[in-house]
Amino acid sequence: MSIILKDKVVVVKVFNNNVILVKDNGIEKVLFGKGLGFNKKFGEVLDSGLIAEKLFKIEDEKNQKNMDEIISRVDTEFFTLCEEVIIDISEELGEELNENIHIGLVDHLFFAIKRIKSNEKMENPFLVEIQTLYRKEFELATKLAKRIGNEIGINIPIGEIGFITLHIHSARNNGKLSNTIKYSFLGNAIVEHVEKKLQIDIDRQSIDYARFLTHIRFAVERIMLDHNIKNDLISVIKNKYSTSYNIATEVSNILENGLDKVVSEDEIAYLAMHIQRFKVSIEK
Q1: In which domain, by residue range, is 37 found?
Q2: Is 84 exposed, middle or buried (0-12, 13-18, 19+ CB in 10 A)?
Q3: Cys bridge to 175: 34, 100, 102, 161, which one at CB 3.0-4.6 A?
Q4: Looking at the domain assignment, is residue 214 inside a domain?
Q5: Taking residues 3-14, what's their average pLDDT?
Q6: Cα dist. 130→13, 152, 161 in Å?
Q7: Residue 1 has pLDDT above 70, yes or no
Q8: Full-model pTM
Q9: Bridge partner residues of 31 (DSSP)
Q10: pLDDT in tens, 163-192
Q11: What are phi and psi of 263, to 5 degrees?
């Protein structure tokens, strides 16, 4: 579906014949459309009624400043490629992405590629958790990495794909990357604690592991939003699965310290049920 601009706009940057950056009433917009950039120049005023196939707005003043800085630093072809893959992600998801992705993801990819070319490895301690919790975003990040890698002739490692995943997930959630990292960090700390207490190695590819991490993710969201859940089996779980319940209580302390929130007894009981699954799996 085409987009028609109602007002005159000023050309800020021409990336190629099909992609331009303009200013529309103080708002920067990246426009995509066949021939849009042909023979256009910086500062040129384009009449109202301009038709674009796709448009991204950069409304936040800080983001506009950061965007200008990135454009001045990043190769034009690379920036255009990044914007094209962001379009692909948006269209495959069928949703608009937060404007921060145009700054955060492009900036991350620019420096990641410099590190890769310099043979500098950057470990991703949350890779398994990211793959488990954000499957769709990881799938899109993998496609993105393959396309960019093919275009510039490098192999983007899986750890970097994990970081790209976080940027995509953040863009789907109003730019909230810090909470995403918090989920991953807490999930990793909690799983390691359960492994230590049960003296096991939890299979990161198992259904129980995926289910447990998903519960942690939604538990964090409930705790942060003060949404209480009801568990009518608390007394049964305490008595029947006392070891798992005690570990769940310790896990609740990790959550409370990480979130600065109180974890309810109902939530602890649900944690105990998931921990019990791990316990049963090693006793078979």
Answers
A1: 1-59
A2: middle
A3: 100
A4: yes
A5: 91
A6: 36, 26, 10
A7: no
A8: 0.68
A9: 20, 55
A10: 899 899 889 987 665 565 667 778 888 989
A11: -100, 125
